[in-house]
Design a protein that fits this description.
The structure holds two protein chains of two kinds.
Chain A lengths: L2 E3 L3 E5 L4 E8 L3 E9 L6 E6 L3 E5 L2 E6 L4 E6 L8 E9 L7 E2 L3 E6 L1
Parallel strand pairs in A: 2-11
Antiparallel strand pairs in A: 1-3, 3-8, 4-5, 4-9, 6-7, 7-8, 9-10, 9-11
Chain B lengths: L4 E3 L2 E4 L5 E6 L6 E8 L3 E9 L2 E5 L6 E5 L5 E5 L8 E8 L9 E2 L3 E5 L1
Parallel strand pairs in B: 2-11
Antiparallel strand pairs in B: 1-3, 3-8, 4-5, 4-9, 5-6, 7-8, 9-10, 9-11
Classes of the chains: A mainly beta, B mainly beta.
Chain lengths: 111, 114
């Protein structure tokens, strides 16, 4: 089957850097996506990694290691508005699901 | 370009009733997927529609159904509601059914079953 693991909660200080890890198990892997969801809001697409390495988009970067079945989301210069839940999601040809989501990491930013 | 819209945003029903939720995808997007989000189970895939045809279905009972219209708008229906159906129902649209197409989510419909 498929499974994804990410920490349930992370707390970080405003202005600092935080890394949210995601490990996955699947077959027919295409890539790993990250979504941000504020309380009461919709998941918002942040990034997609299909190849090994780091993808940078402004303050957010995402990394993938296909050989280790591992990825992470790196948030720099943290702002209070970054407090949200972050989901990693596997894209694969396994089963019927287009996207299989992890259980999400609730990130809390403190002043 | 307008995003994905869902109506209604909030809904309260009682057990045994049925409900229909609506989703309008981003203009030009032809694939619509539905997800159920609950605190305990997270985001779970319900089904995907493309060109008015159901392409994939998740592990949900037959009480959950959907359809897609020629303009790509989609509806999902839940019959004989149960308390456990209380959830945020999200739809997501993408250009096609390609697995690598980014999915863009709507704001969701919050369904409460009493």
């Amino acid at each position: 089957g498929q499974s994804l693991e990410q920490p349930s909660e992370v707390t970080a200080v405003e202005g600092a850097i935080v890394q949210i890890n995601c490990t996955y198990q699947t077959s027919g892997f295409y890539g790993l996506s990250w979504y941000q969801q504020h309380d009461g809001g919709a998941p918002t697409f942040l990034s997609y990694n299909a190849l090994d390495g780091l993808e940078e988009t402004g303050r957010f970067s995402s990394f993938l290691s296909r050989s280790d079945s591992y990825g992470y989301l790196l948030l720099q210069e943290l702002q209070m508005k970054d407090s949200a839940s972050y989901f990693c999601a596997v894209i694969s040809n396994f089963g019927n699901e287009k996207l299989t989501f992890g259980t999400g990491t609730r990130l809390t930013i403190i002043p | 370009k307008a995003g994905v819209t869902q109506t209604p945003r909030y809904l309260i029903k009682t057990r045994g009733q049925q409900v229909t939720l609506s989703c309008s995808p981003i203009s030009g997007h032809r694939s619509v997927s539905w997800y159920q989000q609950t605190p305990g189970q997270g985001l779970q895939f319900l089904f995907e529609y493309f060109s008015e045809t159901q392409r994939n279905k998740g592990n949900f009972p037959g009480r959950f159904s959907g359809r897609q219209f020629s303009n790509s708008r989609s509806e999902m229906n839940v019959s004989t509601l149960e308390l456990g159906d209380s959830a945020l129902y999200l739809c997501a649209s993408s250009l096609s059914t390609a697995s690598t197409d980014t999915q863009y989510f709507g704001p969701g419909t919050r369904l409460t079953v009493l």
